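Long-time lurker, first post.

We've been arguing in lab meeting about whether magnesium ion would sit comfortably in this protein at all. Half the group thinks yes, half thinks no, and nobody has a model to point at. So I'm putting the question to the forum: if I give you the sequence and the SMILES, can you give me back a predicted structure of the complex? Inputs are below. Any interpretation is welcome too.
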Amino acid sequence: MTDIADNNKPASQPIETEKNDAETIPVAKQTAQTLTKRILELLFLLMFISTLLFFLLRLTGDPAAVLAGETGDQEQLELIRKQYGLDKPLIVQYGVFLYKLVQLDFGSSLANAQDALGLVFERLPTSFTLVIIAFTANLIISIPLGAWLGSRPDRTGRKLAATAVFVAQGIPGYITGLLLIQLFSVELGWLPSIGNQGILSWIMPATTLAAFQAPQVVRVISANVAEAMREDYIRTARANGAGFNTLLWRHALKNAMLGATALIGAQVSFLVGGSIITEVIFAWPGLGRLLVTSVQTLDFPVVQAAVFMIAIFVYFAITLTDIVFLFIDPRLRRQRA
Amino acid sequence: MSVVTEGTADAARTAASGETILSVNDLVVEFPRPGQPTDFRAVNGVSFDLRQGETLGLVGESGSGKSMTALSLLGIVPAPGKIIEGSINLRDRRIDNLPVNELRKVRGNDIGMVFQDPMTGLNPVRSIGSQLTESVLRHQDVSKQEAIELAFHALDDVGIPSARERLEGFPHELSGGLRQRVMIALALINHPEVIIADEATTALDATIQAQILDLLRERLSSATMILITHDMGVAAEICDRIMVMYAGRIVETGTIEEVLTSPRHPYTVGLLSAVPKFDIRRPKLVPIPGIPPTAEDIVRGCPFAPRCRFAETDCDQRPPLEYAEDRLVACWHPRLASERKK
Ligand SMILES: Nc1ncnc2c1ncn2[C@@H]1O[C@H](COP(=O)(O)OP(=O)(O)OP(=O)(O)O)[C@@H](O)[C@H]1O
Ligand SMILES: [Mg+2]
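Top reply:
Settle the argument with this. Predicted structure of the protein with magnesium ion, as tokens:
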């Protein structure tokens, strides 16, 4: 502060300019960049996973033996090996595998001779039904609940609820699933416990998945909201007359969601690839259960196709998370110089 | 002017031009201290009047209760603190006991506030325009489009370049000085009758600080304003009257010339000791030996006595804010002009 007393000229033009010279890159362009990068990464990842699986599956068991069954004799085995190209050197098999892979030809199921990728595609709608319902239920419950818990964490009611959420977070998914089956199928007989038989049968598996994931989201959001409510910008908004609801929903929650987006993204990835236990418990004819069965039977074309598909969806979920971030956090929209 | 007046609230109303807009009487803000016999009074019996067109400076060491006094006026003392005594009147209307819905209409509309830290004071994930229009739409009966126009003019008026484009922009795209201009625009956008600036320039570097002060002076020369500052130079520049706070109390108040040229309270003397001839080139307050009473100390008598060179035995009684010669001072042994000549 030099000589403000002598500074009698009228308020000068601001000398300050913008902090960075870098232009803000349009969201669309950054989205495109993110996508390109992710697609390249995905191609490498798929290549890597497929290779890994190819060798792992051949190390853990002899598919020919599985195909021949318990009664199969040596002659039969030779025949099968020849038929499936299993008699060739491993490296040749691998070459053939790769050649077919780029054409998305995973071969046919060893169990029923159906096209492996076709089997996987058949399961997708069933799996996605579950994923979408569970995901939606999760967010519909956990965002408002988390915001409510975090808005006044010192209140007694909220403390109790927060404790309940904490306990719920510790309950493994399969326990929830088994309890639900016991109550609603065995005791009350209200809901079917196995398979995909329409809306009623969706309730328990979706609840199981959501009940497993929601507490994590609730806790992250409530912690973030509680933190955001102490920020200076909340005080600014309050000083301008903002009411509790505006402060919570329009100011704090949006900031809190930044921290929760990564978790929610990871949960979606988990759902598409990892709802295996839930699918098994409820005999849900989805991708997860297909994967389990085909691993058990060493049906490696199906395993390959299923893992391939799951990898794509997990990557899709991650990429989507990145793009969502671009939309909700304006600070990411600027290119780092 | 009378020599000694009973009742601090009345006494604080020194004769001056302009009608009283804001009147604070015996304000007490308390923070509970669990497990302690007494609660902590961040503001302890503050009374003052703010008249139309006047810029009132509020100075004092860190923790003296300046911000809490300001936040009380808007009813936004952070929990668990609260106003437990006193009254605040805006013109003829008592505002400290309004229901929250009514109080919200006062905030930003009748009283606007600029805070210290522009880097954290704006919501990072909301556009500048949306933060401005949110406040406009709350307080004024205008359409969305009109609100956007008002927001544009508000930014333009505080000297933000290419204000139109800025509406779509976000706080992180602006420098600290520009962000503080946005904060000022936000505080002014509904034309409040009273502006409070709580260390509005402290967080900025010197050049920018001077620019923001210029802006405040230019835009608010006729406004009614409370300016909280650590900086006597800043106070000297823009204030008409000054109040010195210590440990939640007002210890001295007078016109800026009076206080700067002949401080009465030993604490004010201490504050100004390194700037004896009102040298505004020494911007920061000079430290006074010792520390103010903390929340743990239960203060009887004069809170400044332990640090005071002039303290005597009678300082264990609390001094009221009374006229000593022509100045309101809360001290048993004020530095009187008549004595000093001796
Ligand atoms: N949340 C809180 N809990 C307990 N005490 C608090 C709380 N917030 C503030 N205080 C106390 O209130 C007193 C007054 O604080 P205030 O912020 O008004 O001081 P200030 O004069 O504005 O200081 P500064 O110049 O540092 O801004 C301080 O002693 C502080 O310790
Ligand atoms: Mg302060």
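For your lab meeting: Chain B touches chain A through 61 residues (CB under 8 Å). Chain B has two domains: 20-110+193-340, 123-191. Whichever side wins, do check it experimentally.
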